[in-house]
Design goal:
19 strands; Cobalt-precorrin-4 Transmethylase, domain 1; 5-stranded parallel beta sheet; single chain
């Protein structure tokens, strides 16, 4: 996981499928006959691309295999192609501002109460054109799209075919005056959208774990946000009326993975010399160790904190032992997927995969000590504050169902040593563990 400059990305060299005369005809037909009627031939279009779109089909199959953890069926591959076809079809109506055709629900609208311009970062997931509809629902805010110059030329040709007026809302990146134009739009209170998940190949990128494999994510969008000193909000739009619906858990998994990846970039990109990636690279090099701990649990039902102390033993990559000596002896051993609890002569064993509420707490500490960013970002978003001499890692659960248990976890440390672990529960209770390394 380091900063790289990969060769020119394959997608920049691939010609777009289709042609403008056909696009103009499809636009006319969609507007003349309506959204429902023109949905019917999309089934045949989706089937055609599934059969003859070799490159796209292979990419879709690879995405599904990573997400599902198995070889996808032909029907599942068709679902992905159909979802893409539906999204492209709806672009016509979004670009023509036919928002009345959609029942639009905006979640998180409260973050837009500040009328200053913000950067909305999205990904190739769902419909980014829905951003235009969001602008209307958020007080008729002006919306602009920031795109790389080679992409802008192709997009402008499409916009001229669908709605020529929409071309004025595109800001081309990579030119001398790009940052000036973006700053002007933001100063006017505009919402500026940018897709932050795809690299051109000739720009710095971070290799970040994504759906089980490292993938290059561009640092440019976050660097741009830092230079403009603007807020960044993640945005994704999901349709519930596609031809063939994708499984909800599949979309949710992709969104969580994207949020985790962008959160890592946000901390690493503005100062590439040190960030989450660099911290975890350092932690991963640390040898097995022993440490003394003291822990205080602050519970709302008690007037005083509950205190305990003992010893921690960590053996990379996945064995963690917590030996409590005071006030009463207790031993907890986490080894891979198994947790063993010994207390008062009694033994109890459980599996982490069967107890997600336990797993979410275990992985926050174990993955951090191991320097395993891939495992950590499957469960948490990670934000980093401070410097190598004194840092704080702030973890927030990605799964909403776990948010009812843990609000956040803050791990503080220095260099390659974690010194404190503070867990803030959703009900207001919290615990603070202080760690002191022992001689090896």
């Amino acid at each position: 996981m380091n900063t790289t400059s990969p060769p020119s990305a394959e997608w920049t060299r691939r010609a777009e499928r289709g042609n403008l005369p056909l696009l103009r005809f499809m636009t006319w037909a969609s507007l003349a006959f309506g959204r429902t009627a023109t949905r019917v031939p999309l089934r045949a279009v989706a089937a055609y691309f599934l059969v003859f779109g070799g490159t796209a089909r292979r990419a879709s199959r690879e995405f599904l295999a990573r997400s599902l953890g198995r070889v996808p069926s032909l029907a599942e591959q068709y679902r992905v192609v159909s979802a893409f076809a539906s999204t492209v079809h709806d672009r016509v109506y979004f670009l023509r501002e036919r928002f009345e055709l959609f029942a639009i629900e905006v979640r998180g609208a409260e973050v837009f109460r500040d009328k200053r311009g913000v950067l909305l970062m999205g990904a190739h997931l769902g419909s980014f054109e829905a951003l235009r509809a969001c602008g209307r629902h958020l007080g008729h805010r002006r919306v602009a799209m920031a795109m790389h110059e080679n992409t802008t030329r192709r997009i402008n040709a499409v916009l001229e075919a669908v709605n020529p007026a929409a071309a004025h809302d595109i800001v081309a990146l990579g030119r001398a005056d790009s940052m000036i134009e973006l700053a002007q739009r933001l100063d006017e209170g505009a919402l500026v959208g940018i897709l932050a998940d795809r690299t051109l190949g000739d720009e710095p990128a971070l290799m970040i774990p994504f759906l089980g494999e490292p993938a290059p994510f561009p640092t440019g969008p976050m660097r741009m946000a830092a230079a403009l000193r603007r807020r960044v909000i993640f945005m994704a739009a999901r349709s519930t009326l596609q031809l063939v619906q994708l499984p909800r858990f599949l979309e949710a998994r992709a969104v969580r993975a994207l949020v985790a990846a962008l959160a890592v970039i946000a901390t690493a990109a503005p100062g590439a010399d040190w960030g989450v990636v660099q911290l975890f690279d350092t932690l991963a090099k640390e040898r097995p160790g022993r440490a003394a701990f003291t822990e205080k649990k602050f519970l709302s039902i008690l007037d005083k904190p509950v205190e305990s102390s003992g010893e921690l033993v960590f053996t990379p990559p996945d064995r963690l032992e917590k030996r409590t000596l005071k006030p009463k002896p207790e031993n907890v051993v986490v080894d891979r997927d198994t947790v063993t609890l010994e207390r008062g002569g009694q033994h109890r064993t459980l599996r982490l995969r069967e107890n997600p509420q336990v797993a979410v707490l275990v992985e926050s500490i174990r993955a951090t000590l191991a320097g395993d960013l891939a495992s950590l970002t499957r469960t948490y978003s990670a934000a980093l504050e401070g410097s190598p001499a004194r840092w704080k890692l702030i973890l927030r659960p990605l799964d909403p169902s776990l948010g009812g248990l843990v609000e956040r976890i803050e791990i503080g440390g220095a260099q390659a040593q974690a010194r404190t672990v503070e867990i803030f529960q959703a009900d207001g209770d919290r615990s603070v563990m202080t760690i002191s390394p022992l001689a090896r």
